[in-house]
Design brief:
- This protein has about 140 residues and is mainly beta.
- The longest helix has 12 residues.
- It has two helices and eight strands; from the N terminus they run H-H-E-E-E-E-E-E-E-E.
Length: about 140
């Protein structure tokens, strides 16, 4: 017997299906409401790989950063301090809760020498490239 489900254009959207799938794996919690994934920019700046992400409302002391096998992991928790239950929301998009993000880095890096700074809601992580990845100039000698 086949497990193929016929597509129905009037069926709930993929987003709703994905939410239900996440809820199944997390014991019925509404994970989409309690977790978010911050967007990141990854670029090179000379001898470093730079990763920037906006974490407005997240305290730096509630954020963990690690590098292992050229994968950067950022996780933490943001709190919304003024939550009023009796509001009649028209739209509620401001998220709070935990976040977790694994970012594969484009080159080999030295995670032990990484640094991070937090300024005005933006987290900027600088990770030096490993020496064997950096380009070296080779001079040609004349005979």
């Amino acid at each position: 017997m086949s497990n193929i489900i016929r597509w129905n254009p009037f069926f709930d959207s993929f987003d709703d299906d994905f939410s239900r799938l996440l809820e199944r794996f997390h014991g019925g919690e509404n994970t989409r409401q309690n977790m978010f994934m911050p967007a990141v920019d990854v670029y090179e700046d000379g001898d470093n790989v730079i990763v920037e992400t906006q974490l407005a409302g997240v305290e730096p002391d509630k954020t963990e950063i690690s590098v292992e096998n050229d994968v950067l992991t950022i996780k933490g928790e943001g709190e919304k301090k003024t939550e009023v239950d009796d509001k009649n929301y028209y739209r509620k998009e401001i998220r709070s809760g935990s976040f977790y993000r694994n970012i594969p880095l484009p080159t080999h890096v030295d995670g032990d020498k990484a640094s991070a700074e937090y300024d005005k809601g933006v987290l900027k992580i600088s990770i030096p490239k490993r020496a064997e990845v950096k380009p070296t100039q080779i001079k040609i000698s004349k005979k």
